[in-house]
Amino acid sequence: MRYRPRWTGTAALLGGSAIWALVLVSCMTTSRTMVAPPMIAGATYVGSQKCAQCHEDTTKHFDDATHAKLAAAESKLPETGCESCHGPGSLHVKAGGGAGTIVNPGNSPETCFRCHLDKRGEFTLPSTHPVLAGKMGCGDCHDPHSGNAVASVTDAEALNAACLKCHTSQGGPYVFEHEASREGCVVCHSPHGSVNAKMLKARNQNLCLQCHFQEQTSPTSILIGGREHATFLPRGTCWSAGCHEAVHGSHVSSSLRF
Ligand code: HEC
Ligand code: HEC
Ligand code: HEC
Ligand code: HEC
Ligand code: HEC
Ligand code: HEC
Ligand code: HEC
What we know:
By secondary structure, the protein is mainly α.
């Protein structure tokens, strides 16, 4: 789903609680549902400048961050950047960082789901990253504190770097590279989840036919990359059946075999 951020009447309705309104407006533009901001019993909002006193490293590049820009766009409202994800910080500040006084979304994706509701569904698909199981967080792939929260799809190298932190072996170097990966791991994988095994975008040859066109030259002949494939295709996927198992790259064969 694409978001269409636009101003709504929420702030007016809520009158004084302008800070809440910002959070709610942001949520409404994404999901059109009213969802409560993260709560910490008894705490109130203090604003991002307060956080900078003790977390300079995190705050330093925040102006460039996707969500900071979002908050800045609603410039009539006080800035709530940090607290839109971490919850109201007054008790945390007062305690000088005491345990249990602030939300850490690194431990749970719930903060993110409030505004990105559709993502919860994606992470319940049969093949997914173990985010709901608490073994990793959204922040492992998205930097919430600086730059684009999602590396640009036009910058495949940056996009792949996020994956290769953990999946080192798929990055090569290979003797025979598969140029597909230069367009990003996401041309073949849906990192939030998929109905197909290994988070694949398609379970059969359609995955590969995105880029390798097949040519039906006669009723019994199908050419892919100039080679006859008619008898191969019914045997399995392109990467099983003893064909191109080394989809990420190969050390032994330019046809991507082990
Ligand atoms: C007076 C200093 C101080 C201020 C102001 C402050 N913090 Fe902290 N914060 C700390 C300390 C100390 C820790 C614990 C650091 C550690 O254990 O490494 C901490 C930890 C955290 C954590 C991690 C908590 C966890 O359970 O892992 C988050 C998130 C956090 N702060 C966010 C914020 C936000 C958001 C603000 C502004 C609303 C803020 N802090 C303001 C001192 C402060
Ligand atoms: C878009 C949501 C979001 C916003 C906005 C945000 N954070 Fe975070 N913050 C996170 C996530 C997610 C983590 C977990 C860290 C990770 O997984 O890398 C985190 C972790 C932290 C931590 C703990 C770091 C650690 O090493 O455990 C601190 C401190 C913190 N944030 C401070 C801030 C401050 C200060 C701001 C405002 C300048 C801010 N955050 C804005 C999402 C956010
Ligand atoms: C207060 C609501 C809110 C919270 C909380 C929130 N987001 Fe967002 N986020 C948004 C909105 C609104 C956008 C803008 C969407 C757009 O312009 O495409 C956005 C954008 C993003 C994008 C970039 C989308 C793009 O196409 O460039 C990513 C990635 C993202 N958020 C991840 C997260 C993660 C991870 C968390 C939790 C740590 C989080 N968000 C928490 C509201 C929120
Ligand atoms: C394993 C890495 C990974 C994890 C974990 C992850 N994401 Fe993403 N996410 C990506 C990548 C890569 C893209 C870009 C997808 C593309 O370009 O096709 C993306 C795109 C997005 C976008 C913008 C495009 C869209 O699909 O709407 C949002 C918003 C987002 N993620 C939110 C989240 C939230 C919230 C979480 C945690 C619940 C999360 N992501 C966890 C890798 C991840
Ligand atoms: C923080 C570490 C981390 C990052 C970053 C990460 N992954 Fe993963 N990935 C995992 C874990 C953990 C699993 C689950 C392994 C398991 O269940 O055995 C996994 C599983 C997978 C699987 C399925 C493996 C299988 O055998 O079913 C694929 C495919 C995958 N990741 C692709 C990606 C892509 C693409 C990206 C970048 C967008 C990415 N991962 C980023 C940790 C990570
Ligand atoms: C051309 C499509 C394609 C691209 C691009 C691609 N993958 Fe894969 N990936 C696959 C296929 C197909 C499988 C399943 C292989 C199997 O089942 O034998 C797979 C499997 C995986 C697995 C599971 C372990 C394994 O090898 O079976 C991981 C992890 C993975 N890919 C990570 C990545 C990462 C990280 C990138 C980017 C550097 C990437 N993939 C790029 C097609 C691709
Ligand atoms: C994003 C586009 C893209 C996708 C998707 C893709 N490939 Fe490729 N592949 C390429 C490019 C580019 C080359 C190098 C130029 C060429 O040989 O066509 C290549 C080369 C190959 C080669 C080597 C051809 C030769 O004779 O040297 C094989 C084999 C191959 N791909 C198999 C696959 C398989 C199997 C899949 C599906 C799992 C797949 N490709 C998906 C882009 C892609």
